[in-house]
Design goal:
- Helices cover about 75% and strands about 0% of the residues.
- α5 packs antiparallel against α7 and α6 crosses α7.
- It holds the Pfam family TetR_N.
Length: about 200
């Protein structure tokens, strides 16, 4: 979690203020784009003074880091939610569907938040997503063999970077359902091959 400077929002009112700032920040980014993503616009949209905003965040980059962290956390929460609410889905499809739901907003918003994650946390964040993906794949015990670290690396990083590519290339206008199906086929075919090699 990004450290929020100057004042730690422990009290309910402070947390509500931070939430309002972050919600306003998302709206400004999504409506006006990154070029007009300024602390003054964010403060105005949130209904707080610029001084209040700076009590919690040093600058707009700190706000973006917190937004991107929430985006990343939301992905792990979606995986858990889908595992519980849609047990008919395979674990692989659960992971793919949760990852594809992504963050709300325009392609530019998604790209800015994705870039922020990779620029500020890079490999560490991919490792966190890797753990979440592998936990999801093992939760239901669908596979009777142990995925080695190399195979696990290939599975999770393939998903992470292919989905990042779809954010970076919106002009391709890929059909979401067909993309989900192709990614599921790719992962399940690879896992089936691993199972065959393991004699499972």
């Amino acid at each position: 979690m990004v450290e929020i400077n100057r004042r730690n929002p422990k009290q309910a009112r402070a947390r509500a203020t931070v939430d309002a700032i972050l919600e306003a920040a998302f709206q400004v980014l999504d409506t006006n784009g990154y070029a007009k993503f300024t602390t003054s616009r964010i403060a105005k949209r949130a209904g707080v003074s610029i001084g209040t905003l700076y009590q919690y965040f040093d600058d707009r980059d700190a706000i973006l880091q917190e937004l991107s962290q929430r985006y990343s956390d939301a992905l792990r929460e979606r995986i858990t939610k889908l595992l519980l609410e849609e047990p008919e889905l395979s674990s692989v499809r659960t992971v793919i569907r949760a990852a594809m739901q992504g963050v709300e907003g325009s392609p530019e918003t998604q790209l800015v938040l994705s870039n922020t994650i990779f620029q500020t946390r890079g490999g560490a964040e991919v490792s966190r997503q890797h753990s979440a993906f592998m936990d999801a794949l093992s939760t239901r015990g669908e596979y009777e063999f142990v995925l080695g670290k190399e195979a696990s690396f290939i599975l999770t990083h393939t998903v992470v970077y292919l989905l990042r590519a779809t954010i970076m290339e919106p002009e391709l206008e890929l059909d979401p359902q067909r993309l989900e199906d192709e990614l599921v086929h790719l992962m399940e075919s690879y896992i089936a091959n691993l199972a065959e090699r393991a004699g499972a």
